[in-house]
Design brief:
This is Phosphoserine aminotransferase. Belongs to the class-V pyridoxal-phosphate-dependent aminotransferase family. SerC subfamily. It catalyses: O-phospho-L-serine + 2-oxoglutarate = 3-phosphooxypyruvate + L-glutamate; 4-(phosphooxy)-L-threonine + 2-oxoglutarate = (R)-3-hydroxy-2-oxo-4-phosphooxybutanoate + L-glutamate. InterPro entries: Aminotrans_V_dom, Aminotrans_V_PyrdxlP_BS, Pser_aminoTfrase, PyrdxlP-dep_Trfase, PyrdxlP-dep_Trfase_major, PyrdxlP-dep_Trfase_small. The structure is a single chain. The chain is of the alpha/beta class and about 400 residues long. It is built from 9 helices and 17 strands. The protein has a 7-stranded mixed beta sheet, covered by helices on one side. Strand 10 and strand 11 form a beta hairpin. Helix 3 crosses helix 4. The chain is globular and about 65 Å long. The chain starts with a strand and ends with a helix.
C-alpha cells in the first residue's frame, strides 16, 4: 500500500464552529498478477470462460466498445448513463436498437417493440392483466421452473388451465395439449434455463394467441414473429446486461389493460411513450443495441443458429462419448442449445470437485441450479467456440482421471 499526502476536509461542529481536519487517503496498488490457466491464457484482458446462466457472458468487442464510450459517448462529453433519455442523443440509441432488432427478427410492421424494466417476472403479471379479463380462461404449458412461475402468477388474475405439463426432462407433444376452446391466449416457455429443455419449432395452437417467454434463447435462432401475439425476454441471458426486458407485441393486443392494473403494467402506456414513460434503463438498452449491431454484421440469426448448433454438438458429444461417466438428463430431441445440464451419476460426490477444478482451469459458473444440483454450462451467443472446446477437453481429462 502507498500512503498519499493527507487530504484536508472542512466541516462544522454543532456549535457552528468550522473545523479543519486531515484524513489520510490510502491507495492500494494491485501489482501482483496471477498466472492465467492454460485453457484461458489466450483470452483478452485476462478473461475466463464464463458459463453463467445469467447475468451472462457478453461479447468482448461489445464490452470494449462500451468501455470506450463510457466516459464520453461519441464526442458528446457525456456518458450514456448521464445523458437525458429525452435528448436526441439517447433517442438515436434506442431507435437504432429497435431498428436493428426488427431487422434481425424480420419483425412485421404491425408489431410494437418495447424496452421495459422489471424482468421477465413482471411480464408474468403484465400478460394476463393486458390480454384477459377476470374470469376468462388462459392456457399455460408448464415445462419447467419458469413456466410454472408464470402460470402461478396468471392464476391470480384469470381462470388458469394447465394445458400440458412436462417432467423437466422432455416436452409434452403439442398434439396432446388440452387447450381450452375459448382461452384468451396460450403461454409457454421456449427454453427452460434450469432444466435445459427447448422447443425446436413454434407450437401450432391454431388461431389462438400464442405467448412465449424466450428469455434464455432470444436471438439465438430465427423466429417467425408473425406466429406469436407476444414474445418477451429478459436481456441478461443472451442479449445484454441485466435491467431491460424486451417485449414484442402485436398491435391488436394493445389497449385492453384492466383499469385496476398499475399504470406501469399497461402496454399501451409504454407504446404511446416509445418505452420512455419513465426513465428507461439507458445503459442496458445501449449495450443491447451494440449486440444487435454485431449480430447483423455476423450474418444475422441464421449464422448465429449455425454457430450455436456447432457449440452444443461439441458439448453434448463430450457427454455422450464419456461411456456413462457424464449424463444429460434431457431427452436428446429437446436438448437446449443454450443451457446444458449434466451430472456424474455413478460418482455424484465428484461433482463439487469437477466444479472446483474447472474454476482453477479458468472455466467458471458451472454449478447447476440450486434446485437440481449437478453442473450446467450456459453457452449463449457470446460464448466462443474455444470456450466450449476447452470445457469438452477438460471433461474428457477429468473423466479419464476419475472413471472407475
Amino acid at each position: 500500500m502507498q500512503l498519499q499526502q493527507a487530504k484536508m476536509t472542512v466541516g462544522r461542529k454543532p456549535s457552528g464552529r468550522t473545523v479543519v481536519s486531515r484524513v489520510p487517503v490510502v491507495r492500494v496498488n494491485a501489482t501482483v498478477a496471477m498466472p492465467l490457466p492454460s485453457s484461458t491464457a489466450a483470452q483478452p484482458h485476462g478473461r475466463v470462460f464464463n458459463f453463467s446462466a445469467g447475468p451472462a457472458i457478453l461479447p468482448v468487442d461489445v464490452l470494449e466498445r462500451a468501455q470506450a464510450d463510457l466516459v464520453n459517448w461519441q464526442g458528446t462529453g457525456m456518458s450514456i448513463m448521464e445523458m437525458s433519455h429525452r435528448g436526441k442523443e439517447f433517442e438515436s440509441v434506442i431507435q437504432k436498437a429497435e431498428a436493428d432488432l426488427r431487422a434481425l427478427l424480420s419483425i412485421p410492421s404491425n408489431y410494437k417493440v418495447l424496452f421495459l424494466q422489471g424482468g421477465a417476472s413482471t411480464q408474468f403479471s403484465m400478460i394476463p392483466l393486458n390480454l384477459a379479463k377476470a374470469g376468462e380462461t388462459v392456457d399455460y404449458v408448464v415445462t419447467g421452473a419458469w413456466s410454472k412461475k408464470a402460470a402461478e402468477e396468471a392464476k391470480k388474475y384469470c381462470d388458469l388451465n394447465i394445458a400440458a405439463k412436462g417432467d423437466n426432462k422432455s416436452l409434452p407433444p403439442v398434439s396432446g395439449w388440452k387447450l381450452s376452446p375459448n382461452s384468451r391466449y396460450v403461454h409457454y416457455c421456449d427454453n427452460e434455463t434450469i432444466g435445459g429443455v427447448e422447443f425446436k419449432s413454434t407450437p401450432d395452437v391454431g388461431d389462438r394467441v400464442l405467448v412465449s417467454d424466450m428469455s434464455s434463447n432470444f436471438i439465438s435462432k430465427p423466429v417467425d414473429v408473425s406466429k406469436y401475439g407476444v414474445i418477451y425476454a429478459g436481456a441478461q441471458k443472451n442479449v445484454g446486461p441485466a435491467g431491460v426486458t424486451i417485449v414484442i407485441i402485436r398491435e391488436d393486443l394493445i389497449g385492453h389493460c384492466r383499469p385496476e392494473a398499475p399504470t406501469m403494467l399497461d402496454y399501451k402506456i409504454h407504446v404511446d411513450n416509445d418505452s420512455m414513460y419513465n426513465t428507461p434503463p439507458c445503459w442496458a438498452i445501449y449495450v443491447c443495441g451494440l449486440v444487435f449491431d454485431k449480430l447483423l454484421k455476423l450474418g444475422g440469426l441464421e449464422a448465429m443458429q449455425k454457430l450455436n448448433e456447432e457449440k452444443a454438438a461439441i458439448l453434448y458429444d463430450a457427454i455422450t462419448s464419456s461411456n456413462g461417466f457424464y449424463n444429460s438428463p434431457v431427452d436428446p430431441a429437446v436438448r437446449s442449445l443454450m443451457n446444458v445440464p449434466f451430472t456424474i451419476p455413478s460418482q455424484p460426490d465428484l461433482e463439487n470437485l469437477f466444479i472446483k477444478e474447472a474454476e482453477k482451469a479458468g472455466m467458471l459458473q458451472l454449478k447447476g441450479h440450486r434446485s437440481v444440483g449437478g453442473m450446467r454450462a450456459s453457452i449463449y451467443n457470446a460464448m466462443p467456440v474455444e470456450g466450449v472446446r476447452a470445457l469438452a477437453n477438460f471433461m474428457k481429462e477429468f473423466a479419464a482421471k476419475h472413471a472407475k
